[in-house]
Amino acid sequence: MKLGVNLLCVGGLIEAAHLEHCRLAAQEGYDGVEIPVLDGSPEHYGWLGAQLDAMGLERTCTAIVPDPGADPTSANPTIRARGIAHLDWILDCATALGAQTIGGPFHAPIGHFTGSGPTMDEWQRGAEAHHLMAEKAAERGILLALEPLNRFETHFLNTAEQAAHYCEMVDHPAFGIMYDTFHSHIEEKDQASAIRVLAGRINVLHVSENDRGVPGTGQIDFPSVFSAVKATGFDGWVVMEAFGAGVPEIAAATRIWRPMFEDHPTLFRDSARFIREAWERA
């Protein structure tokens, strides 16, 4: 596996001031960093990619649908077109960055609900948009890893069973799932069983504790998760994701109002040590 750290714990747009955290990741033995692609331009991500190359860090990235006005699943043709254009922007930024995967909930706007579960029409429109995105991603050597979220953040994709069915609808080898242990801790009866449902479809594993703090300090049974993931043959990116109150725009989005870890050096060090040791034992 390759070990990464999601940099949403330091900011929503990674700039020069955040490069010290990238250097910290390299010092702690991470293979790469996961860059949030929420804002900025391809030119910015090209600059950032060059900085990370100099540090010997590979990268993945994560992205979202920013608002209901750019929803690729919308029944409104104008909104859907804006949504597909946004997916193209994500691809352009990821390409400039040199990202190997694009993960995250780039399906429907976070926190936007219809009052019911997803309809087949919504899924069909989404699958068409994501199939087109996967075709373009494959041409650039990028894998997609769409992230199901818990029911309090989206109605579009919540469970492993839904995600497996959606993969069948998208039907493209460059398209898969980002499995996140935090969201699955809420939605699944048993994480090992959920992982087996997604066998062969997980392109990125997000290691996130139940309180979104340091992995291994909470309720999630990571040895069971890692054993189940390894049993599927997965050997890709394993990315630590944690959040805290120190980044106001991220704290507001994740509803985290108190510190979840002592400091970034402690978070990076303890997480890397725990994940590598638990992965080896699994």
From TrEMBL:
What GO molecular function terms would the record report?
isomerase activity
Q: Which Gene3D superfamilies match?
A: Divalent-metal-dependent TIM barrel enzymes
- What are the alphabetically sorted keywords of the record? Isomerase
Positions of the Xylose isomerase-like TIM barrel domain: 23-277
Domain of life where this protein originates: Bacteria
By what name is this protein known?
A: Sugar phosphate isomerase/epimerase
Q: Which organism is it from?
A: Ruegeria spongiae
Q: What is the lineage of its organism?
A: Bacteria, Pseudomonadati, Pseudomonadota, Alphaproteobacteria, Rhodobacterales
